[in-house]
Design goal:
The structure is a homotrimer of 145-residue chains.
Chain A lengths: L2 E6 L9 H13 L16 E6 L2 E4 L4 H5 L6 E11 L4 H25 L1 E11 L3 E6 L2 H4 L5
Parallel strand pairs in A: 1-2, 4-5
Antiparallel strand pairs in A: 1-4
Helix pairs in contact in A: 1-3
Chain lengths: 145, 145, 145
């Protein structure tokens, strides 16, 4: 944790730079601070992964989009951030708003040009088991390594 | 929401039309009505995405399948519908049954010919943050756009 | 259930045998026994699926890794086991520990050579709907088939 997984329709693969979106979202996470000025997310544990679907079906498949004068080609992006529980509701909203703003900025031009839906959800996970094996965290906590 | 994500073993990619399954499942969702006749799912928010795994291991890897006279090549499909909370238990079961029936119909012939497992689960999500950026919903609610 | 889904950065695809990891994890699940000696997981229902991301961003993108003398190429693996609720906390920890040990053994050499993070989480799912269509389970329960 935290893991941000992005699932999207394959038609977006050629239309936008998803690697850049991943980087922008990770950077957004890294700068989040709580009311005490402490980093909300551990830098060594901030991960964003994006997956274009191999197959998809969205809404009515284009009927309403064509009736509205478009080409009926719908695109969709689902962003799901899973993080540990325990942060304040204010911090959760702040982080959700910040990530949504980053995603909106990334897709602003495309949103003007095509049928596009984007949903961002944050889940506070409570796994029954949570194990790690990492040499990333010590890069950011050299004293604890 | 609602998002239906399909994860499956890569051996199925050449054996069945997953795009057709996505479309059939989305269509099944779009026709669901509650006891008052109201659509269960918003048409602009109905999304189905399918992902073949790059790597997989199923059960004992084929030992029991070969002992039973088959070729030991197991296939598996996991369908997970995540939707918002608040629908009645009756509606949840109705939707689950309808989606399972659609999936069974799609795989009926294959189920006769090969080792195949399919699981469909519905989760009622309660995200801590839920943000949207979409021009799909307004296609179906022109008065609200 | 149980489903173990592995998400990972694409740089690992050429560096490790993910099919072998899937098999090792499935085998680890199949040998788990509870205090009464009963199999923890049904053999016909044990499924492991692995997905390399198409795009990813990890941590600071390599800054700290290069400052520490590495090449800044971070890799990451997220293993998520979702299983039904009802097992004892001791069994959950036992299974988590066993799977983490298998994953650590698989990545031990790579962990010495590169920046690598791995997280394993177990979730006890409580789906609102759970439907199946399978000829795999009967292979292991011929009397019930």
């Amino acid at each position: 944790m935290p893991h941000l997984v992005i699932l999207y329709t394959p038609n977006l693969e050629a239309e936008t730079d998803m690697t850049a979106l991943c980087r922008a979202l990770a950077d957004t996470m890294l700068v989040q601070r709580d009311a005490a000025g402490k980093a909300v997310f551990p830098p060594g544990g901030t991960r964003v992964l994006a997956y274009p679907a191999a197959h998809a079906a969205i809404s009515d498949g284009g009927v309403a989009g064509r009736a509205a004068g478009g080409n009926g080609d719908y695109a969709f992006v689902y962003l799901n951030l899973r993080m540990g529980a325990g942060r304040t509701p204010e911090v959760v909203v702040q982080c959700g708003d910040a990530l949504l703003a980053t995603a909106k900025a990334h897709f602003a031009a495309l949103h003007e040009q095509r049928h596009l839906g984007l949903t961002l959800q944050v889940d506070e996970g409570a796994p029954s088991y949570d194990g790690k094996f990492s040499n990333l965290h010590p890069l950011f906590n050299p004293g604890k390594a």
